[in-house]
Amino acid sequence: MIYRTKQKEAILSYLRELAGRHATAAEVAAGLAAAGQPVGLSTVYRQLEQLVNEGKAKKFRTGDGSACFQYVEGADCGSHFHLKCERCGKLIHLQCRTMDRLSEHILAEHGFLSDPGRTVVYGVCAECRAAERREEGPTEQPGAADRR
Asked: What's the whole-model pTM score?
């Protein structure tokens, strides 16, 4: 049975408003408090875990081992792989035949059944890479020094 509480709905709403970003339990608690809806940290942790169990949120481990959470859009998040940007935190839902073939290969050749819904590839998204290139400034074209 799924219980709906005012606190749980506030937490779910907060995650939804992050629009593809993740947050730690402490960040959720701080965000709710700043919005005038204080919820105790232990309640936030408990409710986030329930949202994960209900399939409404995903839980990820950060590089330091702490947990962060993200709202899950749509009911079929378990059938595809995910890409997680280590810079901005964006989660990309990946529908990709190549990844499906990789999963099939792993099963056929190694006897290991992967779980696409829990498989996350970490890296840097296109937007963050583009921002990094802009920050680096224009690069000199090969041979430009020879033409001076």
From this structure: 0.60
